Structures are given as C-alpha cells and as structure tokens.
C-alpha cells in the first residue's frame, strides 16, 4: 500500500497550449495577494520550482532575473512559484538580487491546480514535490506554451527566445 493518495499518484501536467490558464491567488514576497487575473493584458511566465536557495532553483531564478528587462520590454511578467514561505522568498530575493516576484504556495494549491505537485523519485526514494515546469500565458489568459521537466540552466533564455519569435 502506498503512502500517497490516489490524487497524488495520478496528478500530471495536463494543461496544454490553447487551454485557459487556471486562475489562482497567493501571497507574494511582500505579503500582497496576487491573482492571475491581475495580469490580463500582459504575458505571464509562470514558473514552478522546488525550493529557494538550492543550486538549480537559484540558477533558474537568477537567469530569469538577468533577462528581466527583456521580458518586461516584451510585455511579460515573470512569476516564480514554490512551496517556500514568504520569509524564505524575501531572503532568496535579497541574497540573489532577484527582480521578479515569487509567490508562496505553502499549501500547494497552485501547484496542484497546474498539475506540478507530483510523486517524485530521487535515489530510490519517493516523495511529493514540484516537478520543475513553466507555463507561458498569453495576454488573453490562454496558455501559449508549456515546458515540462525543465532543466534549470539556460531555461529562461529559451523561454525569452520563444516569446519573441
């Protein structure tokens, strides 16, 4: 018998290009409630990552931040989501000088809504966690592209290049 629920075992990223992005609300690093609907009229890069201040997540966040001005010039907002606390996000942003917002999904509501909170395996052990995934959402709230099982290095550069095609 598995320690995971049937929902946990069956959760997968099923959202695809053309789907309406599910609306969500969460607190950002400043404790401000942010919802997807706040960004209607702008593109949104919604990227899910496992944990603040880990090597891959830091590389990914820093690359998005390094390209921040180019994303903004292309009418695109960058939103990072992880299960970390607001306090953790504040420290991560300060330590890495990040320019974009991070949302605290400590109850995993957004992660489950988007199908990225899944059973993962590492060194033979199974656990629940974020599968690194990015959604590019258009100005109309429709998903333009989904990047599944993302490799952190060079990911933001690839997303930007695809966005400006």
Walk me through the topology.
Blueprint: H1 6-10, E1 25-28, E2 33-35, E3 43-48, H2 55-66, H3 68-73, E4 76-82, H4 86-96, E5 101-104, H5 109-113, E6 117-122, E7 125-130, E8 133-137, E9 143-147, H6 155-163
Parallel strand pairs: 3-4, 4-5
Antiparallel strand pairs: 1-2, 1-5, 3-8, 6-7, 8-9
Description of the molecule:
This protein has helices at residues 6-10, 55-66, 68-73, 86-96, 109-113, 155-163, and strands at 25-28, 33-35, 43-48, 76-82, 101-104, 117-122, 125-130, 133-137, 143-147. 30% of the residues are buried. The chain contains six helices and nine strands; from the N terminus they run αβββααβαβαββββα. The strands form two sheets. The chain has a seven-stranded mixed beta sheet with strand order 2-1-5-4-3-8-9. The chain has a two-stranded antiparallel ribbon with strand order 6-7. It starts with 5 loop residues before the first helix and ends with a helix. The mean pLDDT is 94. The longest helix has 12 residues, at 55-66. The protein is α+β, with helices and mostly antiparallel strands and 165 residues long. Strand 6 and strand 7 (125-130) form a beta hairpin.
SSE order = HEEEHHEHEHEEEEH
What kind of assembly state do the chains in view correspond to?
Answer: single chain
Low-confidence stretches: none
Based on CA atoms alone, the radius of gyration comes out at: 15 Å
Widest sheet: strand ordering: 2-1-5-4-3-8-9
What is the beta-strand fraction?
25-35%
Structural class: alpha+beta
Largest β-sheet summary: 7 strands, mixed
């Amino acid at each position: 018998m598995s320690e995971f629920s049937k929902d946990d075992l069956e959760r997968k990223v099923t959202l695809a290009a053309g789907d309406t992005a599910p609306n969500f609300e969460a607190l950002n690093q400043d404790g401000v409630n942010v919802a997807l609907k706040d960004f209607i009229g702008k593109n949104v890069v919604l990227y899910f990552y496992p944990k603040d201040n880990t090597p891959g997540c830091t590389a990914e966040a820093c690359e998005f931040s390094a390209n921040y001005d180019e994303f903004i010039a292309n009418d695109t907002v960058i939103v990072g989501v992880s299960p970390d606390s607001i306090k953790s996000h504040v420290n991560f942003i300060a330590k890495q000088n990040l320019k974009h917002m991070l949302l605290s999904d400590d109850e995993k509501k957004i992660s489950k809504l988007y199908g990225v909170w899944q059973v993962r395996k590492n060194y033979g052990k199974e656990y629940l966690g974020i599968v690194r995934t990015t959604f590019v959402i258009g100005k109309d709230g429709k998903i333009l592209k989904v990047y599944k099982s993302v490799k952190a290095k060079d990911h933001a550069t690839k997303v930007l290049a695809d966005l400006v095609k």
